[in-house]
Specification:
CATH superfamily of the largest domain: HUPs
Helix content: 40-55%
Shape: globular
Subunit structure: Monomer.
Catalytic activity: tRNA(Arg) + L-arginine + ATP = L-arginyl-tRNA(Arg) + AMP + diphosphate
Distance between the termini: 34 Å
Bound molecules: arginine
GO molecular function, one term: arginine-tRNA ligase activity
Largest sheet: 4 strands, antiparallel
Keywords: Aminoacyl-tRNA synthetase, ATP-binding, Cytoplasm, Ligase, Nucleotide-binding, Protein biosynthesis
Subcellular location: Cytoplasm
Number of strands: 13
């Protein structure tokens, strides 16, 4: 299916053409077109242009108007006039709006274009740590990463997902040594039914293992040294050690999948490629960096220095690739991963959905990889995100000062959502079973958590406020899901009446506003995908739901004056539902048929 050009794009083109025809010296000037309340679109570009050309903006605007072909092709522009200090107010023809929407509805992608030049993007997101609980920081990386993956894939980009889990390091020496000495520690009777319960049980066992081994480590010097000796055994691939390491990683994966299941995101096992996967490449990384002089030995450690990275006392803060005891940290694995992603996976773009507090680390890692010639300039980019705060405005903690378990948060969100759903069901038609309430509550509660995360611009810290998140009013997913459910309910009542567009009908103001916004869906998705900004989609959908409610209040659908009008309005309803559905799906949010 061919791309459907939005009316905004078409009008922009017409005005640009008229501008070049009227003022050849201003051929490349941007007319600065935007949606407006006064007309459909307003172009403000004449003001800046007049300043540059030392002319009168109203006169310039008038010239542009004259240069527009009187009978424009497809009759898109119905009226154009100069207003105020030299704005152009442009009204498009009702018929053109509806015809554009018809073309969108005929395309299953609603006219969203594929990229002209798709490449390969490797995206590093959702990277929890083995043997540890997932917390709100992991929520953000998972939810944002999942949305970016969907947006990019929708544009035709080849996306390789990488979950760089923390599955390596000295901690494992302690856990494995304890398991060797207490072989039954992770044993359990039978597997719990369901991903969530199985995951919770696995995490409970890991917590127990962690606590007991920690206690021994802190109290018994001999155990401590046996635990330390276990680390090189792991790194060199000793079979017994490796087998137990696998056991711990597998328990963790069972736990992660339980959380992912609850969170309703698909994380595939082959994409979980943790720090350990690069273990065999680390020596080569060190060798190459040292030989090329990109890294130097400093007090025994292998370091990379930067002009502009200094500590508070003015001494340079290096990126440490290898510690003086020979151990590797986070930097080495990230460097090895870059070589793999560019060299083997043939990525054009590398994305990292990681907390903003790690920005310095990534800046240094990217710069190092560039100096070493492993990474083309500009190919890697962190998509940093802000911190999740509690109601007190401080990083989210439990009352005891511990990090909040992600599963507990999700459970609570679903509980709150259940209350909302139950109340709605009580006022609706017919009995709703408890099972059905729980099913909807999950879609509403999880959607609310994801939406709150995505609707804030990524860099902003935000307050985790469940009451607000599950509210039916305001910028929430529940409000959008409710708009969707309302459309579906109209169709249940519509009987024989079907959505049929009638482009020849005149549109009421609320219909025009809705229709013009529907037409902007594709442009919004392109911008959101190309700029990695899912919150552009949430903002668009919120506006859509608001315009839909206004339409719904002002324009009777099933009781319209004529059958044609009803059909035309049903067409607008149907397209609204489809846009809500597709838009929310890209964000990982479900659209239940009823609320
Ligand atoms: N595992 C780390 C954490 O929980 C995040 C890893 C980020 N990704 C990376 N490639 N370094 O904080």
């Amino acid at each position: 299916m061919a791309t459907v050009h939005s009316l905004a794009a078409t009008v922009h083109q017409r005005v640009s053409d008229a501008l070049s025809a009227a003022l050849p010296e201003a051929a490349s000037a941007d007319p600065l077109l935007r949606r407006s309340d006064r007309a459909d679109f307003q172009a403000n570009g004449m003001l800046a242009l007049a300043k540059k050309l030392k002319g009168n903006p109203r006169e310039l605007a008038a010239k542009v108007t004259e240069a527009l072909p009187a009978q424009d092709e497809n009759a898109v522009i119905a009226n154009i006039e100069v207003s105020g200090p030299g704005f152009l107010n442009i009204t498009v023809a009702d018929e053109a709006i509806m015809k554009n929407l018809v073309a969108r509805r005929q395309d299953e992608r609603l006219g969203v274009p594929y990229k002209d030049d798709p490449g390969t993007t490797v995206i590093d997101y959702s990277q929890p740590n083995v043997a540890k609980e997932m917390h709100v920081g992991h929520l953000r990386s998972t939810v944002i990463g999942d949305a970016v993956v969907h947006l990019l894939e929708h544009r035709g980009e080849k996306v390789v997902r990488r979950h760089h889990i923390g599955d390596w390091g000295t901690n494992f020496g302690m856990l494995i040594q304890y398991l060797i000495e207490h072989p039954h520690e992770l044993d359990h009777e039978s597997d719990a039914a369901g991903a969530k319960d199985a995951g919770e049980a696995a995490m409970a066992r890991l917590n127990r293992l962690y606590k007991s081994s920690r206690a021994l480590f802190d109290s018994d010097e001999d155990f401590k040294s046996r635990a330390r000796d276990r680390v090189p055994a792991l790194q060199s691939g000793d079979p017994e050690t490796l087998a137990l390491w696998h056991k711990i990683v597998d328990e963790s994966k069972t736990y992660f999948q339980g959380v992912y299941d609850e969170l309703d995101v698909e994380i595939r096992d082959p994409d979980i490629v943790g720090e350990s996967a690069y273990n065999d490449d680390l020596q080569q990384v060190v060798k190459d960096l040292e030989e090329s002089g990109v890294a130097v030995r400093s007090e025994g450690a292998l370091c990379v220095f930067f002009e502009d990275v200094k500590g508070p006392d003015g001494t340079p803060t290096p990126l440490i690739v290898q510690k003086s005891n020979g151990g590797f940290g986070y930097a080495a694995t990230d460097l090895a991963a870059i070589r793999n992603r560019i060299g083997e996976l043939k990525a054009d773009t590398l994305l990292y959905v990681v907390d903003a507090r790690q920005s310095l680390h990534f800046r240094m890692v990217f710069e190092t990889a560039q100096r070493a010639g492993w990474l083309p300039e500009g190919a890697a980019r962190q998509l940093p995100f802000g911190t999740v705060l509690g109601k007190d405005g401080k990083p989210f903690k439990t009352r005891e000062g511990e990090t909040v378990r992600l599963v507990d948060l999700l459970d609570e969100a679903v509980d709150r959502a259940a209350a909302v759903v139950r109340e709605k069901a009580a006022t609706g038609d017919g009995e709703v079973t408890e099972e059905e309430i729980q099913r909807r509550a999950k879609q509403v509660g999880i959607g609310a958590v994801k939406y709150a995360d995505l609707s804030n611009s990524m860099m902003r810290d935000y307050v985790f406020d469940l009451d607000r998140m599950v509210s039916l009013q305001g910028d929430t997913s529940v409000y959008l899901q409710y708009a969707y459910a309302r459309v579906r309910s109209i169709f249940r009542k519509a009987g024989e009446l079907k959505p049929v567009p009638h482009p020849e009908l005149e549109l009421a103001p609320a219909e025009r506003a809705l229709a013009l916004h529907l037409d902007a869906f594709a442009d919004t998705l392109v911008a959101a995908a190309d700029e990695y900004e899912p919150h552009k989609v949430t903002a668009y959908l919120y506006e859509l739901a608001t315009l839909y409610s206004r339409f719904f209040e002002n324009c009777p659908v099933l009781k319209a004056d004529t059958k044609e009008q009803t059909e035309n309005r049903l067409f607008l309803c149907d397209l609204t539902a489809e846009v809500l559905h597709q838009g929310l799906a890209l964000l990982g949010i479900r659209t239940p048929e009823r609320l």
